[in-house]
Amino acid sequence: MSERLQVMGHDAGLMVEVLDYENRAAQNPDDANWLKCRIKVNAPPFVGEFQASFTTHDFVHLANALSAALRDCNGSAEFQTYEEGLAFRVDFRKTGQATVSGTAKIPAQTRTTLSFAFDSDQSFLRESLNELQGILSQFPVKT
After folding, report:
1. Domains and CATH numbers, the chain
2. Residue percentage of the chain with pLDDT more than 70
3. Which are the contacts of 93, defined by CB distance < 8 A and separation ≥ 6?
């Protein structure tokens, strides 16, 4: 069963659908924590969709940072991955508003990169945190 993370804004957004572990039988934690994902970036007029692999640790890091930033309604949260297929940052302002900015790269085609930025707010991002918790529940870190 897949889970998804949506980071939405007023007129744009991105979605990461976690499809499954890449190798459910892996015994080594370095191999066992890779996830197959489908990414969709909707930054009008540009829309792109591709597949990439991220680790469970990438989602844990984002969940921790997003939780702290939402609690304080200040600071930032980053999604930075080993293979750099997707990187984004959420920068909060005290008003509850936030800016999401980042890049999406098709892993096999490193010359193809989409840079994006859009406005969001804490109501959208609280839902994103709930979805992250669903991902971590369905696809926990394997030790």
Report:
1. 3-138 (2.30.31.10)
2. 99
3. 74
